[in-house]
Design goal:
It is a single chain. With about 70 residues, the protein is an alpha+beta fold. It has a single domain, classed as N-terminal domain of TfIIb. Strands 1, 2, 3, 4 and 5 form a 5-stranded antiparallel beta sheet that branches. A hairpin with a 2-residue loop joins strand 3 and strand 4. The two termini are about 20 Å apart.
Length: about 70
Amino acid sequence: MDKQLLAMLVCPVCQGKLKLDKDASELLCTFDGLAYPIQDGVPVMLDSEARKMSEEEKLEKAQQAAQKTEAE
């Protein structure tokens, strides 16, 4: 996904930043615990289409994002 497009997209629920999960083809909002699917390269930014992440998954993804930010 294009980095400029990713920088412009926000969670439709909380307006927070989204993290790209390339492996799962999803955009993640760790604050709300929602995972928005990317279908055929197009993000589906509807909360009705979002998958609810488990508490463990939210924590894991938030930690991964923090580690990635520290490495950059």
